[in-house]
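Translate sequence into structure tokens.
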Amino acid sequence: MDVIVREQLQENAHDVGTYILDRFKQLQKDYAEVGDVRGMGLMVGIELVHVQDREKRIPASDEAKAAVEWMREHHVVLSVDGPDENVIKMKPPMCFTRRNADTVVDLLASFFSEWRSK
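Result follows.
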């Protein structure tokens, strides 16, 4: 507990969590594959849906699994969650920084760009 207080890790989790949610919401505007973004603190979920009919929110499970595998190949560990396995879940340590957040978001944007070109 002393380390959490001394290094202001709770404040960091709140600050970086708000920052990464904002970045993911921008990603949602840029990529139709991102159906929803939600989270609290550093725990964030990014729902992927099929682009052809975003309004119906048809789960894009294969894309979510591909994204997680692609990110793993780029040294970022995420997981797939949700009843339809179409939510990319991120739960980093409390020492996660804005720079780390930028890396994750930028890599996901790269994945979506590559995925679209296939």
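Note: The chain is about 50% helix and 15% strand.
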